[in-house]
Structures are given as structure tokens and as C-alpha cells.
Batch of 3 targets.
Target 1
Amino acid sequence: MAYRVCFVCTGNICRSPMAESVFRSRIVEAGLDGAVETDSAGTDGWHAGDGADPRAVAVPEENGYAGDHTARRFDPSWFGRLDLVIALDTGHLRTLRRLAPTQRDADKVRLLPLVRPRSGRRSRRARPLLRGDGRLLHMS
């Protein structure tokens, strides 16, 4: 049986699909394709059914990562089939743990550890950084 991981941000149009795409690529590179399944979702359903933000597609695609994505809202019933739920910031962490039907499910939720590229310090949330023309530059 595969180990199942889901990345979760707010709307599932920027941070979580980017994280899923990079993670999925690393899984394939490690020869674990089939042993680990990846997914992503949002804590809110505002963008359910929409594609990822074009800026969140452009940078990953420019770097060789897949950009095809359809947003959806995280459903608490998914806890039963997931092994790990990765929250993209502390607000998502709190929301997901509140949604968890059991303590065992709440224990599956972890915060994505981030390091700010310029300072080397840890960050509490992934933030998209935009260039002057509105294009996504990178995440910090």
C-alpha cells in the first residue's frame, strides 16, 4: 500500500500545488513512484474547480515541474486514507487539526518546515514573492 501525502494551503491555487509538484518530482527521482502518492487541497473552497494561479504554474514549469492542476477543498473524510497532511502555514495547521475527527488524525498534520532563502532563518509560512510585473519569483 502506498504512503499518502497531501499538501494544504488556503485556496489550493498557489502554494500547495507548487509544493505537491516539487515533492512528486523528488519522489520519482528517488525511485519511489508508486510507493508514495501525492495530493493537494485548500482549507477553503473559493477556488474549487479552478486551475492554479498562472504565476504559480509559470515558475514551476520554467524549472521542469508539472503545472497541470485543479483546485479543491480539503475534506475531513480524507484523514482516513491519508498518512501525512502537510500544512503550508500555522493557520492551516490549526484549521486542519480542528477538522481532524480524531486525535490520531490530528497527529497526521505537520507544518512544512521552511527556510527563508536570503536569511537562512526558519519561516512560519510559505509566502509567494512577486516581481514588479506581478510574476511569481519564488516562494519564501
Target 2
Amino acid sequence: MQPQSTVQVMGIDAGGTMTDTFFVRSDGRFVVGKAQSNPGDESLAIYNSSEDALAHWDRTVDDVYPELVTCVYSGTAMLNRILMRKGLDVGLICNRGFEQIHSMGRALQSYLGYALEDRIHLNTHRYDEPLVPVSRTRGVTERTDVQGKVVIPLREDEVRRATRELVEAGSQAIVICLLQSHKNESSEQRARDIVREELKKLKADIPVFASVDYYPSRKESHRMNTTILEAYGAEPSRQTLKKVSDRFRKHGAKFDLRVMATHGGTISWKAKELARTIVSGPIGGVIGSKLLGEALGDENIACSDIGGTSFDVALITKGNFAIKSDPDMARLVLSLPLVAMDSVGAGAAASCVWTPTASPSSLARTLLAIASAPAGRKAVSTPFRFPTVTWCWAT
């Protein structure tokens, strides 16, 4: 009996309902495993899925994990966290007089994802609940003009007071985003240093996110939303990925866990700008579809991914996919390079009927709640009726 080839590559698709793993040997053969997702411990779902896959080769994770050269993770946990508003309690420091800039949003955020007939009628427009409420937003005096010249210096005492108030308000992370900081970062960097000094005095272990450290780009709403997203959704996801990496190490793995990023490449789970992985699951599907199309000789491909918690669509035309520089995701405008696609939080088993009072966000949260429930526990109190698309079964 010839010895089996070593297993070199592992792929992970951690969906809202099921977690799939994909192992490839050096001779090109592969196996696929599946296990129910575990939102409380994603590393356990990956372990169970790995065991299911490797059983086909009569091997275990303790045998295979040490052989792996690389592993790429993709999932929808961060996107689901944003859609369901289950991120960290974030505090925001911005310019005085602009405290409501995040809650107001750009006008187009009130109709993102709407059909044309709903876009043209203002009475159908609805803003989603902001990631940071006004009650945890503080304005400080400072102004930098569009050329990057500081015309009103930063009032440092106001920054210190704002920090104390945000800590008292229960903030688990603090975001700093000042106007025109992408043209001159000095005021925002000074505000960041003051916040850290004040947190140290208060003995508060709270991460600080300054937009110039993460996404120093034009367009104020895009930059603010993306930096808030980093604190609100990416930071909890980092803890999840650390747990996954630790479990790999526990079973002898030596590779650095990689994550699919919004631009179509991969980044380390330790990367600073982890918000770039908000839709890592569907992005991986687009990249795979492109490679499959090249092998089959097809240049124009419609890609779709119906998962347990979202339905995603992308197009490949003339062998290429488009990348947006100022995309929207989860009904937020962002400053991230993103493979052009549309995502709707409605992939799960659910009963629903559209009503004028039902906003897209409320529908998405209802479907996500149903899809995220453990198997056999799909009963969720909801005003919606009539069956729709389902990932596991149809009525």
C-alpha cells in the first residue's frame, strides 16, 4: 500500500448555518467536510467539519494540521454581526457641530438595496439604526480646511472630557474621525494620543481607532463608517479568528491563518485593517468562479451564493470582475476596495410578507435570527408570513 500524499492546503467557509472545510493533497485530490456552525465557538465548528472531511482518508486533524502549508478562511460572521447590530458598544469623537453625521448618513443610505419603484418614493426610504448612537458621540472643537491647514487648533481639554464621558457611557471601543484628517493627520493623531493617555489614567482597557491610522481617504462619511466598522464588527471578529488560530496551534499547525479580503486577495488575521474581510465568504466564491471559468473557457459568468444567512450575487464579464473603490455594504457607504457584488440578508428559511412598515433591516434581522438558530429550533417570533427561499428545506 502506497503512502498517502501530504495534505497541503485547507479552505474554510464558515457560514451562518453550516461550516465547510476543504482539504487538498499534493497529488491534487481533495475532500470536503461539513458541520453545523457554532456562533459561540467557530473554532469548534471548524474542528468538527475537519474531522468529517478527513474521515474519508482515515486521518485525523492531529495527523493533518501539522502537514498543512496554508489555510484560507472565509465567512460571513462579520457581515451578519453588522446586519443584526450585534457589535461592540462604540464611542465616537468627531468635530463639534458634526455629532449627527454618522446617524444622518449619506442620502443614498436611506434607499440602498431598494428596487427602483421604492427608490423614487421618499415615503419608502428608511435609515438603518446607526452603529454608534448619538448618546455615545462627542464633538470636540477643531477645524482643518480642505487644503489641510489647521484653522482652529484642537481643544485638548475637550478631548479629555469626551473620553471620560464615553467611558462612563459604557463604550467598549473609541473611534476618532475629524474632518479633512486625510489631508493633515496632526490633529487626529494628537486626539488619539490624548484619548490613550486618559484611558490609561482611568485604567480602562479600551481599543482606540483613529481614521488616519486605518483608512486615511477622502469622503467623510465613507471614512467614518469604515473606521467605525473596524471597531464595531472587525474587532470582535479578530477575537474569533484568534480562537480559530489557537485551536489550529493546539493540534500542531504551523501556518499563519489567512482570511479572504474584499479586494479578492488574502490577508493575515493579525492585519490591522480587518474590516477588509467583511464579506470574505462570497468574495472567495467569485475568485473561484473566475478560475473555473478560465478552465472551462467561459468569460461571462453569473455567480450566486445562497447561504443560510445571505444571498449574494456577482458578475464576471470578459473574464474579469469589477472592484469598487467606494462601495456600499450592509447599507453603509465605505472606503474599501470591494469586488462588485450585491448581498441581501435573506438566504435563510423564513416565512415573510412585505409590508409598508417593514424596513429592509428589520426583515434581514428576522431572517438572520431564524438562520442563526440551532438546527431544530427555527421558531422565531415574527410578523411576517408566507414561505420564501430556504437553505436547508422548503415548505
Target 3
Amino acid sequence: MMLFLSKRHTARPKFTLRLLTAVVLALPLIPLSGGAAMAATASRAHVTISDGRLQPSSVSISTGGVVSWTNDSDYTVTLSSNALGSHSLRPDGSWSYTFGSAGTYTYTATSRTESGRSTSQTGTVTVGGSGSPPPSPSPTPPPSPSPTSTPPPPPPPTPTPTTPPTPSPTAAPSPSNASVMVGDDFFIPKTVTVALGSTVTWTNGGSQHTVTCTGSCGPQTFDSGSMNTGATFSHTFTVAGTYNYVCVYHAPGMSGTITVQ
């Protein structure tokens, strides 16, 4: 998959525009190598983030397509999901992602204004096949049956008793790792569900915070201590249950939940 960050520029020199025009006009004159037609490129989609809203909030592309996000607001926006990870866009910043597998991807855009108010909006990206599906055939009506005399049905056979199969024991889910981003006054995602034996890693992208679960917060306790910007903290969950943790500097508003099954 291809990941990159870029800055949006609103002004371009006239010379650049003239050069691009000349290149576009010259493209039909370039012969194709070996007489073969060039393959069509994957589709693209663009999402603009303005005043805490995704425009549009749902896009559809073909497999191998690219979605670009541009932050037109005056504050930093964080894009996050289990599939795409977490990425911060500063004002006027852009970020693009190439989707190599078909499916539906859900992500969250979280922004925090200068007044301290946080807003979140959920968006979706639907990735389909590279080609158009064939048209559905028109249904052919069945021929009308000729009326015939119906013989009486034979008596039903005597059922043979069968022994139900022994159910196989259900295997416990395999451990899997999860990541949580620590920001100023929030955890993303706020709620995480993992299997027994999984490891959760917190990465601090804000100011000084903690990841603390003490007292009766859950079956086990853990505490990261004070985490500076860029610091990480990991904990492996060996006891099933629900864990409610907080940042001791910003509790109770800054809190999160880990569910271990």
C-alpha cells in the first residue's frame, strides 16, 4: 500500500499552467509501445474536512483506487481506523491512501478547536472490483403447465431415528494486538475489544498524559506513569473482563475502555 503526506498549495505560477497545458495537448501524439493499449488507472476520490464535517462522508472507488483527504479547517484533524492506522492533518494539509483490497472501510475524523472542544465524524470508503459487473439477464417466464390428473401422494416413509452429532468445542479467539492514540483530552479509539492474551499499545501524540487503571478499574491494574510527547506504553491482558482506564491529569473526561474476551 502507498502512504504519503503533502501540503496543498493554492497559488501556482502561470508558467507552470502553460507547461501543463502543452503536455496535455501533446499526449495524443505519443505512440503506444508495441501497439498495445495503455491500462486504465485506478479511480480516485477526494474528501474535504471543513468545520468538523466530511464532504462527502462516504465515497466509493475500485480496487487499487486512491482516496485523498484535505484539511480545510483552522485546526489539526486526526484520521484513525483499525485498517488505516492514525494520521494527523494540520490546517491545509493533505494525506492519501491506496486501497489494494475490496471491502468497506470505516474511519473517524477527530478535531479539537482552540477552545478545547472536540468533535468526531465517521466516514466510509467502499472499495469494489476493477471492472463493471455484467448486465443481469432478463428473466424468461416459464411455460404454462398443461392440466393433468394428480395421483394421490404415497404415504410418507417412517423416519429413522438419528443420533445428533457431538458438537465440537469452540476454540477461543486468537490473541491480536491493538493500538490506541493518546491526544490532548482523548483516547482514539475510546473503546477497544481484544482476545485474551492480546497486547494493547498506547502512543502519546499530545502533551503529558498517563494510561492508568488502578483500584477497581478491572480484573487487573496497570499504569504507564507520566508519558511525554511521542512516548509509548504497552500492556498484555491475561485476564478476561472490562478495564476502565483514565489519564490521571485529565480524569474523568479523558477515559477509555478495554474489553478482553
